[in-house]
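Bench log. Compound arrived from synthesis this morning; before running ITC I wanted a structural hypothesis for how guanosine-5'-diphosphate sits in the protein. Inputs:
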Amino acid sequence: MAFEGLSSRLQSVFSKLRGKGKVSEEDVSQAMREVRLALLEADVNFKVVKDFIAKVKEKSVGKEVMDSFTPGMVIIDIVNKELTELMGGSQAKLAKANKPPTVIMMVGLQGAGKTTTTGKLAKLLQKQNHRPLLVAGDIYRPAAIKQLQILGEQIKAPVFSLGDQTSPVEIARQGLQHAKENGNDYVIVDTAGRLHVDEELMEELRQIHEAVNPDEVLLVVDAMTGQDAVNVAEHFNNQLQLTGVVLTKLDGDTRGGAALSVKAVTGCPIKFASLGEKLDALEPFHPERMASRILG
Ligand code: GDP
């Protein structure tokens, strides 16, 4: 499971602190050195770690903490709160258009899980009694359209496609029109990905953005790729103004760096986490729950 290494490292640091009736500044410094190493080893961005440790330390060495009956517990609580803040504080909700349909554009590198996440998100919306339309805008990857159609059949959601000979910009535009005419209150546009960030793709995504004016631009990133995921997020955000991130493959043995860095580095909240290949494996991302899970 994700975060295993980080989680056990932090738990061992804190079990030492927890037992202490009195905590000295040196104890705090020692604990923070260990937390710092644990975070770096979990592939958390260097600068993010530095800021995090500085904040926790500043709050931990105050007289109030040192004089409390259970200083170790107070410090753990401070770390918990800062971890939660690091991941965005509270749950970032999906935007909703004033006038339906709400348009969601899915972007990301090939293999990150964009197409499957499109299906999962539609399923999540259906559970809330919405009627999403899926738009097959990835005309380059062989079988991407078919993949979306199969997902659509599985969850009984309509899929709008114009094959692979029409431009994705036109497909997105007509897909939106189709949703308006058919009473779909959400439109989820799947777009093409490449193996690496590339300028031609960015230009196409910008054009799709202009054509459908999305309420959400969700970047799907593979949490297993650690700092690369954060770099990708930074790049996409500079080009497209993302509104949120979806972290996939959190069921794998990711060290967790992406989850802990992406909000701080890009300013973009993580809105969903995907924890498996199954269609119901997508969940709204709860920073406080994730922090508690990491701290055990
Ligand atoms: P796309 O190229 O970004 O559209 O990627 P796909 O949606 O085709 O997904 C690529 C692969 O990742 C597929 O085999 C998915 O089943 C798998 N995948 C996506 N999300 C998750 C996840 O949360 N956990 C796991 N284990 N696999 C995932």
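What the model suggests: The CA atoms of residues 106 and 141 lie 15 Å apart. Residues 108, 110-116, 193, 248-249, 251-252, 274-277, 281 surround guanosine-5'-diphosphate (CB under 6 Å).
ITC booked for Thursday regardless.
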